[in-house]
Description:
By secondary structure, the protein is α/β, with parallel strands linked by helices. The protein has a single domain (about 5-185), classed as Rossmann fold. It has six helices and five strands; from the N terminus they run αβαβαββαβαα. The protein has helices at about 20-25, 35-50, 85-95, 130-145, 155-160, 175-185, and strands at about 30, 55-60, 100-105, 125-130, 150. It has a five-stranded mixed β-sheet, with helices on both faces. Strand 2, helix 3 (about 85-95) and strand 3 form a beta-alpha-beta unit. Helix 2 runs parallel beside helix 3 (about 85-95). The longest helix has 15 residues, at about 35-50. Residues about 165-185 have low confidence and may be disordered.
Amino acid sequence: MPPPKNPAAAKDWKLTAGSVADAANADVIVLATMFDNQWAQLAQISEAIRGKGKWIIDLTNPFLRRPDGGSSGIPKADMPPGGPGGVLVHKQKLGDDSVKWACVFKHTLWLLILPDGPKKKSNGVEVFGDAEPVQLVTDLLVKGGWTPKYRGDLSVAPRYEPMGPKAAPPCSPSFFKRFMVDRLACI
């Protein structure tokens, strides 16, 4: 979660960080590393969480292939049936229908979640996924002073993680900058 705009609202939050192994014991697991690194971590606990109805909040960076090496994109062999979406890849690889998923901050730049707030006015934070974890994330956002924007179920993931492997050649820095300005909903 970003620093709350209303710090007093967070005084009773019980959010903790721990090891990857610790996450297997949590009711809610947050995926918050780079997309390219996330599956390796989730795979470490996949057997321990399978069938236990965990909620997973996917904050992973969009899989956009970037010229700076920040991500390599979704390999064609891992492309989910619904289209390009990091959360869809994680869900497909985990293969556990008992898990409920929510996504948030997929296109919220770091500068928009600074403790003193964004330099520009934000039009909200996109949230999508399964009802129960979406409600949890929405409640946390509201308590923290943010404006959640519900976008739908997981089928909308490709809309919020554009530029999968079907895209043209890897984008140039100038194209990436134009893409960021034109497509990110929270700028």
